[in-house]
Task: structure prediction
Amino acid sequence: MSPRATDLTSSSVQNYSDQELNWIIENGIRFTGMPGFGKVETPEHIWAS
Ligand code: HEM
Result:
């Protein structure tokens, strides 16, 4: 995959706020392999993750 999926344990990812992570999981990252889960998961499930 290019760009490669990020190491979620890296300090740059760990420094995101809960709100920032929730936004990324809900919307995905355009033009990358990172899918948005907002259409297939409930907001409560995304927040819980
Ligand atoms: C619940 C599952 C997932 C979570 C919590 C998650 C979380 C994240 C987060 C927080 C980032 C941002 C990292 C950064 O900004 O440096 C990211 C990036 C990325 N994810 Fe996911 N992800 C998930 C599933 C997936 C899946 C299923 C794929 C592909 C099949 C994927 C591919 C990618 C890629 C390619 C990037 C890098 C995008 C870039 O370089 O800007 N992710 N992911």
The pocket of protoporphyrin IX containing FE is lined by residues 1, 3, 5-6, 8, 12-13, 21, 24-25, 29, 32-35, 49 (CB under 6 Å).
